[in-house]
Design goal:
Layout (H helix, E strand, L loop, with lengths): L2 H23 L2 H17 L11 H19 L6 H8 L6 H19 L3 H12 L4 H8 L3 H19 L6 H5 L1
Helix pairs in contact: 1-2, 1-3, 2-3, 3-4, 3-5, 5-8, 6-8, 7-8
Length: 174
């Protein structure tokens, strides 16, 4: 990635990122400092950006989230990290929710694509549709024990695939 790409990111996303950071810090100065750190990190790690894993906007918000967590770690005597994590997880009606949900869906779709058809069916029925092991077993002509084993192995395989990302199957399937 080159300097022009970094400049494009800054022009395209700075305003929205600053608003996101100000929302989570309640301080324009802190938000601007964190925004600088986001783009410095972006510049340092530009070669690691993989557009097949997520889009630029999601990537920037993931970096911003990490910088916010670091910011709150430094201020942990003033604000609890658990409260910060609760603010950053999907559930709030703001831009971060939409970005996190989009990035999560992309990550899960990628991880599901590495599974064989039977494993993918078990994970989708059990974890995404909420069927019991018995219901899943009936639909797929398996035993409930097989369903549990297949699910466990599939989630393990997905976890390994996602270990370098911010997401893991447990975030979605707990």
């Amino acid at each position: 990635m080159d300097e022009q790409w970094i400049e494009h990111l800054m022009l395209e996303y700075s305003a929205a990122l600053l608003k996101y950071l100000m929302h989570h810090t309640s301080s324009r100065e802190d938000a601007e400092d964190i925004l600088q750190e986001v783009f410095l990190s972006c510049h340092r790690h530009a070669a690691e950006f993989d557009p097949s894993r997520c889009n630029e906007q999601a990537w920037l918000y993931i970096i911003a989230k990490r910088k916010l967590i670091s910011y709150y770690r430094l201020k942990k005597d003033q604000v609890s990290l658990d409260a910060m994590e609760a603010d950053l997880t999907p559930g709030r009606d703001d831009m971060s929710k939409a970005i996190n949900v989009m990035a999560c869906r992309q990550a899960v779709a990628k991880a599901l694509s590495i599974l064989d058809e039977r494993s993918r069916s078990v994970v989708v029925l059990r974890c995404l549709r909420g069927l019991s092991p018995d219901e899943t077993a009936k639909r797929l002509a398996l035993t409930p024990g097989n369903v549990r084993v297949i699910q466990s192995r599939a989630i393990g395989k997905m976890s390994k695939f996602l270990e370098d990302s911010d997401f893991s199957p447990e975030d979605f399937f707990s």
